Amino acid sequence: MKKFVFVNEAAKRAFLDLPREIQRQFGTDLQAVQRGEPPFSRWKHLTETVGPGAIELIENAPNAYRTIYCAKFAETVYILHAFTKTTNSVDRHAMKTAAERYKLMLQMLRAKP
């Protein structure tokens, strides 16, 4: 089973700021990913906007919630960002934040012995 890691404290705070019901749903999805299974929620690849292996979990009830993770490297599921979506189009600020944290994740991986 893969480990589960928030890429930094800000990513953890963002996830914990989501409503409890959404945290539970995304938590169930991430546990499935840890076991090598697909998530239960809708999802999509964010290779172009965040980086290779980045996945966005999607929940729309009644507001739109997202969690972005990467499970491509080092037998670990890295949580990059979580947020409440406020626009119908791409949330550019959220994608920029996720891309910056993706780079941080890569730095963490390079620093490992």
* Mean pLDDT across all amino acids: 95
Assembly state: single chain
Shape: globular
Q: What count of domains describes the coordinates? A: 1
How many DSSP E strands? 5
User: Main sheet: which strands, in order across?
Assistant: 1-5-4-3-2
Distance between the termini: 21 Å
Tell me, what is the CATH class? Answer: Alpha Beta
Pfam family, one: Gp49
InterPro entries: HigB-like
Organism: Rhizobium rosettiformans
Protein name: Phage-related protein
What tags apply to this protein structure?
113 residues, alpha+beta, YaeB-like fold, 5-stranded mixed beta sheet, 38% helix, 28% strand, globular, HigB-like, Phage-related protein
Structure description:
- There is one protein chain.
- By secondary structure, this protein is of the alpha+beta class.
- The chain has a single domain, classed as RelE-like (YaeB-like fold, 2-Layer Sandwich).
- It is built from three helices and five strands, in the order βααββββα.
- It has a five-stranded mixed β-sheet, sandwiched between helices.
- Strand 4 and strand 5 form a beta hairpin.
- The longest helix is centred in the last third of the chain and has 20 residues.
- The chain is globular.
- The two termini are 21 Å apart.
- The model has no long low-confidence stretch (mean pLDDT 95).
